[in-house]
Design a protein that fits this description.
Distance between the termini: 24 Å
Largest sheet: 3 strands, parallel
Structural class: alpha/beta
Shape: globular
Helix content: 25-40%
Number of strands: 3
Order of helices and strands: EHEHEH
Strand order of the largest sheet: 2-1-3
Strand content: 15-25%
Low-confidence stretches: none
Radius of gyration: 12 Å
Mean pLDDT: 84
Length: 78
């Protein structure tokens, strides 16, 4: 994606999460505000690492349905 606009967001559900409706809504709000929104990969933590390793994003939004997934989310973020 063209990241030259300066406001880019990577948004998606945490690996293993199945809910995408809320992520899509948030993405649309960002798009309406002029942000470039990239949908995060849904095929695991390795795919997230590849996504952020090759591009600069101003923010990354990761949706999580339940606090039981916080330890795995912390590992993903680090």
């Amino acid at each position: 994606p063209n990241m030259a606009r300066g406001r880019s967001a990577l948004l998606g559900a945490a690996p293993g999460e199945q809910h995408g409706f809320g992520v899509a809504m948030v993405g649309e709000f960002f798009r309406q505000a002029g942000w470039l929104v990239v949908a995060a990969p849904q095929d695991g933590a390795d795919a997230w690492e590849r996504a952020v390793g090759g591009h600069w994003f101003d923010i990354a939004g990761i949706s999580l349905a339940d606090e039981a997934g916080l330890p795995a989310l912390g590992a993903l973020v680090s």
